[in-house]
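Ticket #4471: structure output looks truncated?

Reporter: J.K.
Steps to reproduce: submitted the chain below (306 residues) through the standard prediction queue, then opened the result file.
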Amino acid sequence: MNKQKLHLLILEDNPDDAELMVRELKKEGFEFEWKRVETEKAFKEALSKKPDIILADYKLPTFDGMAAIKLQQEISPDIPLIIVSGSIGEELAIDCLKAGATDYILKDRLSRLGHSMKRGLKEAEERKKLKKAEETLKESEKKYRTLVESLEEGIASVDENENFTFINPAACNIFGYAKEELLQMNFNDILTLENHQKITQQNSIRKTGKSSKYDLNIIKKNGDIRIITSSVSPIFKNGEFKGSFGIFYDITERKQAEEQLKKKNEELTAFNRLAVGRELRMIELKSDINKLLMKLGQEEKYKIVE
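Returned output as attached by the reporter:
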């Protein structure tokens, strides 16, 4: 790190003291360009050019180190700033660190300056990598949320007590409530009573770390009862069960079609036993079955000859 070409800003009213700092850093092997300023206006202008590191005297005729730290925090908080002063009390030095300074060095102990510079630059580099990581994470979260919001599948999450914590628009349509309403509700609020025990049992399974798939009957806000199929996974944090994440589909029409198909098949079987030769009714039943199979996306079972 100490071999890179740095841009060093020195806030110092004494040119000789600035030269001593530069000499000490060069002795440590740093390669840098540097600029000395001594007024607030010049310091603010130099800050806008984003130096790599700042060395600041605490006491100047019209400016001081604390004011410099405040400006640095407002304009470029990621740039490390080291207070280099002839005399500064411990309490004041601590105040500087709390305000945002990276370190403080006494002018009669400049041998510490190189070490302090390396530490300040390393911390700044780590902060840059962490913000970059946070930006990448935020971008990923944004893309994920956009994807989830646009899916046709209903997606929702609940906490360990079955209170809704997230729901996408498709799930709102399936459940028949607005997002704001659901986020104030418990999942059991939209279930028929006979399904409450099923959720309790499934939660017991999820607490062991297993995902599960099952059907549920829900009551929409308008009173309609719908059948949904759900694929639900547990959410753990630090090894502790914190809720569930589920994907939902409304399968009411499919279930109704399956039930009708079952009844028609039963009726056909009974008809074959009791009314052999009644071709017309048989054709009608076969036609009904074919229609239901097509509705379910399956191939026709019977070929109807007109």
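Triage note (M.O.): checked the attachment and the full token line is present. The longest strand covers residues 225-237.
Status: closed, working as intended.
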